[in-house]
């Protein structure tokens, strides 16, 4: 019974981490790319842009992979956090490390980058 409880806990932690790291962060990165690069080139000023979240998420997955590759090149905090998560493995997953030291700073930064222009205009 303890093994089942242990594996259910690991599965729940892995699913929550996956939703944030493979769902939310790529979506925000893709949305930022869409808002900054694609929409100004594709949509005239007198028309309203339409956002396709699946397409933004797919762009975000590609950009997230590139950003992770760039992050692993230098010596800085993000690389240390990614290596610590990698060395912990799936059975010793540290949800606090993933959410607090990796996901929260990235989500807050992307959220501010997306929200501040709207707040400044209004």
TrEMBL record:
Location in the cell: Membrane
Molecular function GO labels: ubiquitin protein ligase activity
InterPro entries hit by this protein: MARCHF6-like_C (IPR056521)
Annotated ranges, domain E3 ubiquitin-protein ligase MARCHF6-like C-terminal: 1-121
UniProt-listed Enzyme Commission number(s): 2.3.2.27
GO BP, sorted A to Z: ERAD pathway
Annotated pathway: Protein modification; protein ubiquitination
Gene Ontology cellular-component terms listed: endoplasmic reticulum membrane
Entry keyword set: Membrane, Transferase, Transmembrane, Transmembrane helix, Ubl conjugation pathway
Transmembrane portions of the chain: 12-37, 57-78, 98-120
Keyword Transmembrane attached: yes
Record membrane topology: Multi-pass membrane protein
Originating organism: Medioppia subpectinata
Catalyzed reactions: S-ubiquitinyl-[E2 ubiquitin-conjugating enzyme]-L-cysteine + [acceptor protein]-L-lysine = [E2 ubiquitin-conjugating enzyme]-L-cysteine + N(6)-ubiquitinyl-[acceptor protein]-L-lysine
Keyword RNA-binding included in the entry's annotation: no
Primary localization class, coarse: membrane
Signal sequence, start to end: none
Source organism superkingdom: Eukaryota
Record-given protein name: RING-type E3 ubiquitin transferase
């Amino acid at each position: 019974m303890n093994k089942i409880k242990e594996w259910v806990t690991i599965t729940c932690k892995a699913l929550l981490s996956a939703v944030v790291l493979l769902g939310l962060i790529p979506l925000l990165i893709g949305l930022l790319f869409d808002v900054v690069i694609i929409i100004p080139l594709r949509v005239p000023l007198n028309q309203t842009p339409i956002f396709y979240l699946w397409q933004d998420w797919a762009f975000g997955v590609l950009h997230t992979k590139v950003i992770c590759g760039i992050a692993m090149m230098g010596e800085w905090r993000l690389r240390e956090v990614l290596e610590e998560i990698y060395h912990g493995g799936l059975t010793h997953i540290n949800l606090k490390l993933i959410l607090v030291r990796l996901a929260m700073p990235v989500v807050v930064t992307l959220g501010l980058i997306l929200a501040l222009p709207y707040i400044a205009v209004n």
